Amino acid sequence: METTSKTIWDINPKKRFKAYVQTCVSLLKKFSNQGLITQGNVFHAHLIKKGLSSQKYIATNLLILYLNCRKFAAIDQIVKEFDGSDLVVHNCLISANIQWGNLDQARTLFDEMPERNEVSWTALISGFMKHGRVGESMWYFERNPFQNVVSWTAAISGLVRNGLNFEALKLFFRLLESGVRPNDVTYTSVLRACGELREFGLGMSVLGLVVISGFEHYLSVSNSLITLSLRMGEIDLARRVFDQMEKRDVVSWTAILDVYVETGDLREARRIFDQMPERNEISWSVMIARYSQSGYGEEALKLFSKMVWEGFKPNVSCFACTLSALAGLKALSAGINIHGHTIKIGINKDVFIGSSLIDLYCKCGNPDDGRLVFDLISEKNVVCWNSIVGGYSVNGRLEEAKELFELIPEKNDVSWGTIIAGYLENGQSEKVLEIFNTLLLSGQTPNKSTFSSVLCACASVASLDKGMNVHGKIIKLGIQYDIFVGTALTDMYAKCGDIGSSKQVFERMPEKNEISWTVMIQGLAESGFAEESLMLFEEMERTSEVAPNELMLLSVLFACSHCGLVDKGLRYFISMEKVYGIKPKGMHYTCVVDLLSRSGRLNEAEEFIRTMPFQPEANAFTALLSGCNRYKDAKIAERTAKKLWELAEKNSAGYVLLSNIYASAGRWIDVSNIRKFMRERGLKKSGGCSWVEVRNQVHSFYSEDGSHFQSDEIYGTLQLLRSDMVGVETQQ
Length: 732
Description:
mainly alpha
């Protein structure tokens, strides 16, 4: 400002009037853009002293300054100095009222104008569009006598901004028919509309027009082309457009960042993010959101801290993603700090912030605090309803979750999926099937996630008929080839004992990920097809790029154990860390103990347990005891049982196995002592379980169980059958 002021004092207005006026106008524009009203008032006084305040260009810019700063007394004074019919003044007043949201006043000013120009009409068209009053905007557009590219573009871009992309494209075709040539802003809006509607063929046609018109290197057009290419899945095209740009802004960099974020290439996305010459809140939010959604919560938090340190103000989306990352890490203390900050800046009741806070508190085991946040949200949407239902479910409070679920005003597929997943996670598979039937009766279409949960429930109760019915609905919806649904079907059939159907579903899947392969390998191994399981694993290594995971290698060890392939199993175990980079866990060590024990190599199994790098699982000792029982080795059994008792005193399996070993060796006194010890400790052998499905309902039964609602009738019928059987034997 000081430099500009010195320039004014250096100019003699009498000798260089035009240069003086231009400098004054430039200075007033600067005051206006930066809201420097005090400096503006001082300069206005200087202009009055010089007798130049009423000069038209200067007076107009003084008016704009006072309009931007809402100084109404000064506005009225300047307007009085103009002729009441001045076109420029009216246009300035219309634009200001639109900016303030006074649309009716803007319309009144427009109607009072004795004459109007294209600026007047375009201001009203774009103003009404900006405030969502599309119908009124189009009314003025259709009656506009100055239908030039600016007014056409104002209408087209306004329709796109209001989500009316199809109407925007229709208006674009009318523009082309009228003979008016689109400009760069027109093409920017039209390309955005094509992307939103996924009209990629039309988008490519518009791209041809862009090239013919010579707008392909315009900044806003190039940015829209990158976004369109991303929507089309044309990553190479998006990168090519970006690389060919002569000039880039923060929007360009954020657009190409979004390309790699959407494809899941976080490494390349981060490289681009670090290269950005400047960043805005959107750039930071995009990167933080992707880290959070991809399970890299710590990276998301580091980036959030860096963003705040560099002076950027996080937006609602950024806060929500950061809270989600904290929820994933169960970092309650840090989450409470951010909650406090959201209260301080007044966004804690925002529905997206609220949903993330509910998720945070519930995942950290504080559903009551989550409920307090939920109750404070004044305008609840289905997202926050789903969050609180899921939060109560995660904490095992299913009755409260169900009550809230019933209160949701408009349930969506995620609502149903959330309550179903809650019952599944808490082991209530029968309830899952019951709610799924209610979902179907409601007319709502289940999503893929819900189908996966229901199939998992069918698998857990081995309800093959129900699983096949669900499969039929999946085929009807045409989603049987989806990778997640296909994997769930493969698992369901395998666990229900129909390994043939499981293999058929697996083989028909056009795409398979590591979970798909794991499910099939595990299903074959656990269904008694151990050799076929190993062959499938070897086929996967030869033909796919999928890398083995912990569960897959556990299934391979299990298969080796049941095939008696001890040396091969040991080779796979040794390869886990050396070849596959996976550190064996307790369950892998236990599987090796079982592998050695089943083959009679009991001394090796005992030594293997002794040299484990951590405390062995109780199941490892149980596996060795089982081997001792099979091969009648009482000495190792006694040593192993003692260690099992120290590790898990309430585990009856070890006592039962040792009792069986003593019995097979004829050591009846020891058998009696073991059983007496078990009675004193209140230990019982785990009862067997069986179930049957009748009329879409699964009935479970345990040994000596009287909890079934028809147990009296069942035992009565059994007694009748027993009497009939005794009668038949007597007759014979």
